[in-house]
Design goal:
Blueprint lengths: L9 H9 L12 E9 L7 E7 L5 E5 L1 H7 L4 E4 L4 E4 L1 E6 L1 H8 L2 E2 L6 H12 L8 E6 L13 H4 L7 E5 L4 E4 L1 H6 L13 E5 L5 E7 L2 H5 L7 H17 L2 E9 L1 H12 L6 E7 L4 H8 L2 E2 L5 E9 L29 H13 L3 E6 L2 H14 L10 E4 L10 H4 L3 E4 L1 H7 L3 H9 L6 H7 L3 E3 L10 H10 L19 H7 L2 H6 L17 E4 L16 E6 L2 E5 L4
Parallel strand pairs: 1-4, 1-5, 6-13, 7-8, 8-9, 13-14, 14-16, 16-17, 17-18, 18-19, 19-20
Antiparallel strand pairs: 1-2, 2-3, 5-21, 9-10, 10-12, 11-12, 15-16, 21-22, 22-23
The structure holds zinc ion.
Amino acid sequence: MRNTVKRWSMTAVAAAVFAGVWLPASASDVTVLTAARIHTMDTAQPRVRAMAYDDAGRILALGDAAELRSRYPQATHLDAGDATVIPGLIDAHGHVAGLGLSQMRAQLADTASKDDIVQRLREFARELPPGAWLLGRGWDQNDWPEQRFPTAADLDAAFPDRPVWLERVDGHAGWANSAAMEVVERDLSGDWQPDGGRIERDARGQPTGVFIDSAAALIDSAMPAMDADTAELALELGMRSAVEHGLTGVHDAGVTLPQLRGYQALADRDEMPLRIYALAAGDGDALEWICDNGLYAHDGGRLQMRSVKLYVDGALGSRGAAMIQDYHDDAGNRGLLLTEPAALDAIVARAKGCGVQVATHAIGDRGNQVVLDAYAKAWPEESADHRWRIEHAQVLAPQDLPRLAELNVIASMQPTHATSDMPWAEERVGPERIVGAYAWRQLRDSGARLALGSDFPVESVDPRLGLFAAATRTDAEGMPAGGWLPQEKLTAYEALRGFTLDAAYAGFAEDEVGSLEVGKRADFVLLAQDPLAIPEQQLRDLTVLATYVDGDEVYRAPRD
Ligand SMILES: [Zn+2]
């Protein structure tokens, strides 16, 4: 991935030494990047025209183009022309394997008929080993002439032996063929139904092939566990997609030990195109692994695991988020806690004892309150630099909102969740509680640190959409006009900070990345437009020209 154009004549190097010019250790490997503007995110020197970095990817100097060229006369010159350079973007909450896996499933959205589906599946299956499960997602019977649920029989002719399992567009139903249903141990016929789900059946009680909500788990659990190669491929595909969107770092929110091993194998082979800050999956043995082995960092500088991801509640859309009062649109329902306060206290105490950072998923105002209470108990000392985080921090009670800043708790939030949820969020929580929901501005103004992300693949991995959502609070069409709860908008600069320096801080990495400063890593993105000068409505149309990590080009947009 190194730029092979970096060649210079010995004469030039010798001449420079002879002339008494100071040369860094690997003088001949200096690169001077020039661009129309370089936004450093360093308040001491916010905007420069040139940046020099060494072969190891360390920034040596920032400043004026002519000055840096004369200071490093033998350097390779990288002229970015009219481009704007920004620090590499960091997604503070994504799921890399999930993103990769979603690319390994057949995409079935926008089909005209069931035949269309079978056609796409046939093409997709050509790439698969014989007998492997064929997975897909995105079907919607409303797109087809008959507008009825499909059946296993629709797939059986084309796939008599290979199990096929296809998720509906909303993720709340799955469609299986007979080969997939045969693998399920439990007899699916009869008149029984699982809690929280439904098996579609014909008049004789035979399953038709569609499994709704929790019933889908019957098929899911019959799938063979992923082998190591497939798991590694998923990580590779996910990381590849991230760098194509200008990301140079991802906080992977819930990494199991097998996944960590996959990352380690890739890091050992120098095949990590970006930095992964792994939050260990708290429901497995990863926390104990860190406690036994110590905080983990790979030598290559691209993989770390020193944090644990916990869950306190569910999601707002399905009313699983824990609320202090009833849901506005469902009297008597307050959602539920997935982790009771006492259990949470115990696990965070264990994490603290091992020096592990805690990052807890909390959506409802009760969920957030329980987490803040647990963190407050764990850290009675006031100015501790623990950097514990709340993932999502979606609905906060008015009295809890200032507590994040008071307790030094980082709000790890996803701007696109707000714009995805805005059509129905107020219905769920009502007009009073919505004021403390998706409240980036209030949190930021209260002094809390905002680390921004996307929660991909739940939302798109594309950080331009996050910047756009944070600064406009509208959908792609600009609705609602002026933005939803517009008082919570961030400026483009503040949003960019959330995706750079403050995301870096949330991963204990602000001395290495997040801004372009001398001594830091040359992680940066070339954009065709200046995100701080264009109207906020255009942030979603920024063009990522190239992505660099440690001074190495890890992505370049194809020329058209
Ligand atoms: Zn997530």
